[in-house]
Amino acid sequence: MTGNTTFFLIGAFLLLFLLPFFVLRDMKNGKKPADIFTSNIMLFVLFLVSVGEVLRSILSSEAMVHFNQTLFLFIIIFVVSPLLFILFYHLRSDMKKWRNPEEYKYYWVYKFRYIFITVLAIVFAGALYRFYLIYEIVFG
């Protein structure tokens, strides 16, 4: 094992214990399941990446290709799909708030809201393009 592998192994074990702690803490604080999911999902993805880096030093190249394909599909199904569902589920109520100028702390944000939404849509499209590139690398 190289020096980086031990770093990722320690990180994976640390995240293995921190993730349930953060989820239980959020449940005790009375957060909604969607909020718990969105606040802790990046730690879970980081855990999966750490495990992948550790396995890269142990497994052969063919096994790692299979692992990367499985990990990519797992992230699409269990991370990206629920996040998109949460986004579209809350979009209708958020659109009502966008139309009300009293919901904004600063009035200038209300004036430029469509520019902000356009920038957010461009960032979202860029993220989808990056997922497509990752798909081409993993399955190509």
UniProtKB/TrEMBL annotation:
Keywords, in A-Z order: Membrane, Transmembrane, Transmembrane helix
Annotated TM spans: 6-24, 36-59, 71-91, 112-135
Name of the protein in question: Uncharacterized protein
Native organism: Bacillus salacetis
